[in-house]
Design goal:
Homeodomain-like_sf (chains A, B); 215 residues; DNA-binding (chains A, B); Transcriptional regulator, TetR family (chains A, B); 2 domains; homodimer; Arc Repressor Mutant, subunit A; disordered N terminus; Tetracycline Repressor, domain 2; mainly alpha; TetR_C_40 (chains A, B)
Chain lengths: 215, 215
């Protein structure tokens, strides 16, 4: 649903703005397709512009380097996962279940799409991209949990950084072949208990989330 | 105190072994001094060997690259901090207090020695060095807590990775100027609650640890 601000901005955007946005979109989509085909190391800027049918110099109107484009592609993919994972507040799903579900999905990424996760972890600013994209979604879920008395989190910023940093470290270890068993379940439990749930409550929230995701 | 194994090994070590160990030690100490003087970026292998008074080629008998030496220096410094932080099990200090104290010290590193921490975070394998050095110490403290019923940690490996990964992410943010207030206290609380302590117990453990450290 478009907000008032978006509509207002839409009216203000000129034809040149829209053209510029389309070109940027084409570069990102082409970059993403090429990365999927042969990975980042084989990616050449000239190949992107050639396939997107724009001048080589145009690339630099939108991105400063190849890595800049790659970061954008990864950030967008991560945003899609986050948006699909975190339900809208008006759905009134238990915040504990929301957190468990998000953790299950993100930990699962390492199994479902190891190439993407490897790409993410090898970015020079992986942690920044990870944090920038995920913090707003995670913060919303946590704030709702605090509001309705489901979570006790005295320092939201510290907990947010700790939870995302921990997830990052675990995903890295999974990719490197460490950790057997259901890491997502164990980590969801660890996080929910750190938010003040009893182990039994954390277990129940994990089960509901897992059932909702696979249903 | 030398163990039987060390003494046995000592008998078996030849003069050449001891000489080799002395040279390695000299390279590490010289590297550490030069890093302290002017940082890693200005560090040149030739300068290390020249000041340590060994042939340039000798460096490569001990380290494959400059970064290899830097990793060793950082790993040793981290080990010293860990060894000074974690008390011996026979001292029978409350494991919750041990964990809180370790977190206070490590978070405090970012304030006490930002140059060292920046060096640590900029290593290409920072997380590996961090984990390799800290896991054994942290594992000992956690296992004792589980043994005496102070901690409930169903999956020790997942919790270990999460706790160290979270600390890493927080230290990075502190260095980048984020997080106001006492991050060490907030994180110690978060971790201890994740280990099954009540917020009140976590608070008390933090206070004891802080008192012991400053006394």
């Amino acid at each position: 649903m478009a907000t008032v601000t978006e509509v207002t901005q839409g009216h203000r955007r000129t034809r040149a703005d829209r053209q510029r946005e389309r070109t940027r979109r084409k570069l990102i989509d082409t970059g993403r397709a090429l990365i999927a085909e042969r990975g980042v190391s084989g990616l050449r800027i000239q190949e992107i512009t050639s396939r997107a049918d724009v001048a080589l110099g145009t690339f630099y109107n939108h991105f400063s380097t190849k890595d800049d484009l790659v970061e954008t592609v990864v950030g967008e993919t991560l945003t899609e996962v986050a948006a699909a994972t975190i339900p809208e507040p008006e759905q009134h799903i238990d915040p504990a279940e929301v957190v468990a579900g998000a953790i299950i999905r993100f930990m699962g990424l390492a199994d479902r799409d190891p190439d993407f996760v490897r790409l993410l972890l090898n970015l020079s600013h992986a942690d920044v991209v990870f944090a920038t994209v995920l913090y707003p979604y995670a913060r919303t879920a946590l704030e709702r949990g605090i509001e309705i008395g489901r979570f006790v989190i005295p320092d939201l910023d510290v907990s947010l950084t700790a939870v995302v940093g921990g997830a990052f470290a675990l995903i890295r270890e999974i990719l490197e072949g460490g950790h057997k068993g259901d890491v997502g379940k164990a980590y969801a439990r660890h996080v929910l208990v750190s938010f003040g749930l009893t182990p039994q409550d954390a277990e129940a929230a994990w089960k509901s989330a897992a059932a909702r995701i696979t249903s």
